[in-house]
Amino acid sequence: GLVNSRELFKKAVDGGYAIPAFNFNNLEQLQAIVSACVETKSPVILQVSSGARKYANQTLLKNLAKGAVEYAEELGYKIPIVLHLDHGDTFELCKSCIEMGFSSVMIDGSHHPYEKNVELTAQVVEYAHKYDVTVEGELGVLAGIEDDVQSDVTHYTKPEEVEDFVKKTGVDSLAISIGTSHGANKFKPEQCTRNEDGILIPPPLRFDILEEIEKRIPGFPIVLHGASSVPPELVKIINSNGGRLKDAVGIPEDQLRRAARSAVCKINIDSDGRLAMTAAIRKYLNEHPEEFDPRKYLGPAREALKELYKHKIVNVLGSNDKA
Ligand code: G3H
Ligand code: 13P
Ligand code: NA
Ligand code: ZN
User: Fold this and answer.
1) Who has the most CB within 10 Å: 43, 160, 196, 247?
2) In angstroms, what is the span from residue 75 Cα to ligand 1's centroid?
3) CB of 56 closer than 6 A to ligand 1?
4) What is the pTM of this model?
């Protein structure tokens, strides 16, 4: 069955790698994730956002995730699979996911005042641990939009708060803000420099803050949200096949590799998958205007997504051969 994240995080922190946390909203995304993880022998965290629940129905998503455990075995290798609520914003939502059979939840109280965040997170932890469900909390606010919550600027995690927060709440992992953000436009062009090809180069992540956090809570599992790299070659395929993505810029993969070697043991990637699927679909439909069977364009999109995930696992996160 599904597992919680406790053992996976312990091994990842000790081993200097990160577990992939990939979002899914439909069958093709799930197939791509599971087959990529089976082929690379990687553990995986399947993430469901509130938006995913609204789009696809939580009962269907839960049963897809449960089916994924068997599907992986059918593909030839048993991998640990976590079903995780991404960016839960209330106790009731977390409770409902736990009742449904999720093995892990995030309670994102990062936009609340500190004391309120502590109180809400502790409440979720107390309930979740009765069912052996692991809980991710968050300190610091990422720039950009997460579901309904949005912030124009980054509020970096304050290292002086982390020890008190994990002690008072009992959380199993902590998401931090060190300069990543959600979506495909992570930085404003004026924050970046341009290389000779005109590609926007973002400012580096705040590894100084990460190191300070690691000193305060040594070995404690850290989570990085907003970790898509927004590959320029995918943006190019989209835009040369009728798309119009402007000023798209993400986190360079060498920085994520560095983060994965630290106490960062869960890295969240959604936007890069969206870009890979969209690029494949736009290209296919552009080249095959006579086709109208969804399997004809969703098939290549699923294949492109699987290749992207394998690349992330092997070349960025280092979670291959850890299952
Ligand atoms: O945190 C954001 C994730 O990429 C999920 O996005 O809320 O549009 O499903 P979503
Ligand atoms: P990206 O938008 O960078 O893929 O981040 C996804 C995420 O953090 C989901 O929680
Ligand atoms: Na790590
Ligand atoms: Zn996130």
Assistant:
1) 43
2) 28
3) no
4) 0.97
Atom of ligand 2 nearest to the CA of 142: 8
164 is catalytic: no
Expressed in angstroms and rounded, the spacing between residue 44 Cα and the centre of ligand 2 is 15
pLDDT average, residue stretch 153-170:
96
Helices (H), the chain: 6-15, 27-40, 50-56, 58-75, 91-100, 114-130, 159-169, 207-216, 232-239, 253-261, 271-287, 294-311
Distance CA(230)–CA(241), nearest Å, equals: 17
Instruction: Reply yes or no on whether the pLDDT at 146 is more than 70.
Output: no
For the stretch 87-118, pLDDT in tens is: 999 999 999 999 999 999 999 999 999 999 99
Task: Name all domains of the chain by residue range, CATH numbers in brackets.
Answer: 6-317 (3.20.20.70)
Q: Say which residue the tokens 């008190």 belong to.
A: 164
Q: Which atom of ligand 2 is nearest to the CA of 106?
A: 10
